[in-house]
Amino acid sequence: MRCIICQQEVIRDVTWQTFLKPPERKKICNHCSHLLEPIYSPCCPSCHRPDQELTCKDCLQWFESHPGLLDRNVSVFKYNEFNKELVARWKYRGDYVLVEAFKEEIQKKWLSAGYQGRKVVQVPLSEQRLMERGFNQSDAIIKVLEEEPLAIFARTHGEKQSKRGKKDRMHALNPFTLQLSISEPVVIIDDIYTTGRTVRHMADLLKKQGCSSVSSFTIFR
To answer: Which of 127, 174, 192, 214 could lock 203 by a disulfide, CB 3.0 to 4.6 Å apart?
Structure first.
C-alpha cells in the first residue's frame, strides 16, 4: 500500500505481535506521520495552543473581552508548514481522500477529549464556497468522528478567512445566523483554530439563545 500523502510505499513494522495478529493497514508512512506533529502536553488548557504551559495570551484577552462564550477548544495537530500544504490540497484542490490521513489521530483525540454525548454542530459554508470546494470540511470531520451533524447555522458569503490577517479576523462582522436554538451542550467542529473568532461568532449566537455550554474541536491549531 502507498502513503496517501506522499505516495511512497508504506513499510509495516514486523514484530511477533504483528506477525501473530496483523494490524490494520497503515494509510500513511512513518515519515509523514511524524511530520503531522500531534499536539501533546504542554499546551494551553483553553485553546490547545502547543508548547504553552499556562493559559495563552490570546485566551486571556478573550476571557476579558468576551467572557463565558467558549468553554475550551481541543485540537489534534500543530498547524505547521507540512500541514498547511495538506490543508491546501484537501480544501482548495479537492483532494478529499486526505482526511483519511488524519482519521486515527482524530478519533483518538475525540475520545480523550470527553465530548461524547454532546450535540455536534457543523460549521456551514456559503453556497458559493460550497460550490467551489465541492464539500464542507466540517461535515467531512464529523463523518470521520462517526457523529451526526447538527446543521443549525447559515452563513453569508465573504472573503476567505485564510486571506485575512489576525486584526481583520478579530474585527470581522458575524457571518452566521442561528436557525434553531438549542439548550444542550454542543461541540463546534472545524478544521483549523487560528484566532478562535469563527467558533466564538457561533458560540455568541448559541449562548444568546440559551445554550448551556459551547466547546470546539478542530484538526489543527
So the answer is: 214
Q: What is residue 155's DSSP assignment?
A: E
Residue 123 CA to residue 202 CA, distance in Å, equals 9
Was domain 37-220 assigned CATH 3.40.50? yes
Q: Structure pTM?
A: 0.88
Residue with cell 458569503: 157
Q: 80-90 pLDDT, tens per residue?
A: 999 999 999 99
Please tell me whether residue 188 adopts helix, strand or coil conformation: strand
The gap between the terminal CA atoms of the chain, to the nearest Å, is 30
Place of cell 483525540: 109
Q: If you ran DSSP here, which 8-state letter would residue 210 be given? A: T
The domain ranges of the chain are 1-36, 37-220
Q: Which residue type does 67 have? A: P
Residue 193, sorted as left (phi over 0), alpha (psi -120 to 50) or beta, turns out to be: beta
Q: Give the pLDDT confidence of 178-216 residue by residue, as tens digits.
A: 999 999 999 999 999 999 999 999 999 999 999 999 999
